[in-house]
Amino acid sequence: MNETVSVKQVKKRTKSAVTMPFSSFERMISFRYLRPPKGEGFISVIAILTLLGIALGVTALIVVLSVMNGFRDTLYKNILDMNGHVVIQQFGKPFTGFDDVANKIKTVPGVKSVIPVIDGQVMVTSKYQEYFGNVRGIRAGDLNKLATVSTNLVSGSLENFKDDSGIIIGSRLANVLGVRVGDKINIVTLRGAKTPFGTTPRVKPYRISAIFEVGIYEYDLKVLFMPLDQAQKFFSKKRQVSALEVMVNKPKQVELIEQDIAKAAGNDTNLSTWKQRNAKLFSVLAIERNMMFIIVSLVVFVAALNIISSMVMLVKVKTKDIAVLRTMGATRGAIMRVFMTTGSFIGVCGTVLGLVLGVTICLNIDAIQNFIGWATGVRINPEIQILSKLPAKMDPVETTIIVIVALILSFLATIYPAWRAASLDPVEALRYE
């Protein structure tokens, strides 16, 4: 995009231009066309906007997919750490003799641990507030194996969890109830004593021995941990449990040992894996991720199309230059390569800029989120977000694919303008000059 190339320069490099593709002569012409010519700044503005469009499209793709990957992986991790990879329940009768079943399952290769649990819906009350929650009865030793809970205690410890009145609650539930470690809360269940007038609710006070925060809103708000023997008494389930939760060494390949676990558990049990229990959730996430990739890719596609318009305008402006180059011996191929190099350079710069911006944003996603919240006064509601913070995980393969796709689209967008430039008839172009 500069003044007409001098005849002297053309004569000096015509021979190499004809014989050597992508020679220094062709590169010189291409990069001169990238500079804004006098009186033709509008073309440069379009080229800059095209570059920025490609950069923003690549940035958006990298950030969106990285955030969705981080969200999915964090969700995977918390689900796998908080819940059994395989849940075993008894068919149509109380689950007694669970220790014998657990010992058989432990012999299956690939099984890490088997945890007996009792689940029960309750109402939790304090002197300030009440809320509904889900009690999980579990042994102290098994709770220590749940690293998501045992390593994320914000206050208190697991030492008093063995006491008759010890209980562990989430940080958001503690905030709702207005309590802290050492305070007492009342647990209320409808599974109380049976009387001639019906079943009466059972109410029992428990002292908070620890408060945890795993980062998933629902868990931090609704889950309470109670010693297994206390849960059996409270829910009137003597010597029985709700289920056995099996933890395996390779949860993402749990289907490989699913049948072995089922055989060890016996025919009168029902088995479900974490993949089966969360199939709908993760299928929705996969569909949403694919759709977001397609939608955001359109931004890159539209930006690449702008290369066509900017190059077509450049060809129009440089008609005389093209005619002179042709009359001095430059081939159609050389002219085509000049304009393809010019357009591709815009695409490459836009892609590299987008890659740098995308990686920078992903590495500083928390700081950026906090800054936006501070600047706008709007904070992301964890009830909507599910997770307490916005995760981001870049996949090198995905990032490479994004870069390659952007480069290919940019290259393809240069073909038509370059072909049009190479097809110009020098005689017709110089007729009215």
Explain this structure to me?
The chain is of the alpha+beta class and 433 residues long. The chain has two domains: 7-75 and 282-430, no CATH class; 94-267, no CATH class. Helices cover 57% and strands 17% of the residues. It contains 18 helices and twelve strands. The protein has helices spanning 7-19, 24-34, 41-82, 98-106, 140-145, 147-150, 171-177, 217-222, 228-234, 258-265, 274-277, 279-317, 319-327, 332-363, 365-376, 382-385, 396-422, 426-430; strands spanning 86-90, 111-125, 130-138, 153-156, 166-170, 184-189, 194-195, 198-199, 202-212, 223-227, 243-248, 269-273. Strand 2 (111-125) and strand 3 form a beta hairpin. Helix 3 (41-82) packs antiparallel against helix 12 (279-317) and helix 4 runs antiparallel to helix 10. The longest helix is centred in the N-terminal third of the chain and has 42 residues, at 41-82. The two termini are 19 Å apart. Mean pLDDT is 81; it is low at 14-19.
